[in-house]
Amino acid sequence: MIYLLPILAVLLSFIFVFVTKPKNRSNFKLLLAFSGAFLLALTIFELLPEVYEHSDPKTVGLLIMSGILLQIFLEFFSKGAEHGHVHIDSEKSDFPLLVFASLCIHSLLEGFPIDHDGSIIYGILIHKVPIAIILSIFLLNSKITLVKAVLFIVLFAFMTPIGTYISANFKAVAEYYIPITSLVIGVFLHISTVILFESSEEHTFNLRKLAVIVLGIAIAYFV
Questions:
Q1: Which tens digits make up the pLDDT trace of 103-119?
Q2: Is 23 part of any domain?
Q3: Would you say the pTM of this structure is higher than 0.85?
Q4: Which alpha helices (H) appear in 112-145, and where do they start and end?
Q5: Half-sphere exposure (Cβ direction) of 197: Cα atoms closer than 13 Å
Q6: Which domain range does residue 147 map to?
Q7: In this structure, is residue 22 part of a structural domain?
Q8: What radius of gyration do the chain's Cα atoms show?
Q9: How far apart are CA 182 and CA 116, in angstroms?
């Protein structure tokens, strides 16, 4: 299931968009806010204690900061697609290779902690659904052909399970689980906090957003 669920989350999101054809991405802001809070809370509750328990705190901190910087670097190419912003020219029919490569690296890294900490998969799934929906809306409303859009989504869907498989079956990678996970924590911290900040970008009090953020944290606590 840890291999199948991330694939289904992305593919079913694409099918949902293809069938229902939603036009307005802003309708998914509450789902994004929930996913950001849930992923952030799971990272703090589950992953952070583990890496700090099994490694030098200074080294862990350095790797977490490196993960944050890595994600910032990836976003120069992905244009923020990992947190629901797709800043790509919808009039172009070219396959967005840089966006695809950046998203694949991000998704591959997401898969590494899953084999060791099963609960983090829920945070990744809830993170993937709104991102896959928003990405699918862009792809299907752009001039990119349907074949290219499907290829993009299918390959993207498989990257997280590939990361999990590598972590579980390659001894050389497994030996560096704590450093890699520390790097992934930095990626998660950046993604989830950006989602939360952007969900409140109007700087006005929004009770619904606050409620879904609190709900995301509470559910993560009891997972």
A1: 889 999 999 998 887 78
A2: no
A3: yes
A4: 120-141
A5: 7
A6: 4-17+28-85+93-222
A7: no
A8: 17
A9: 13
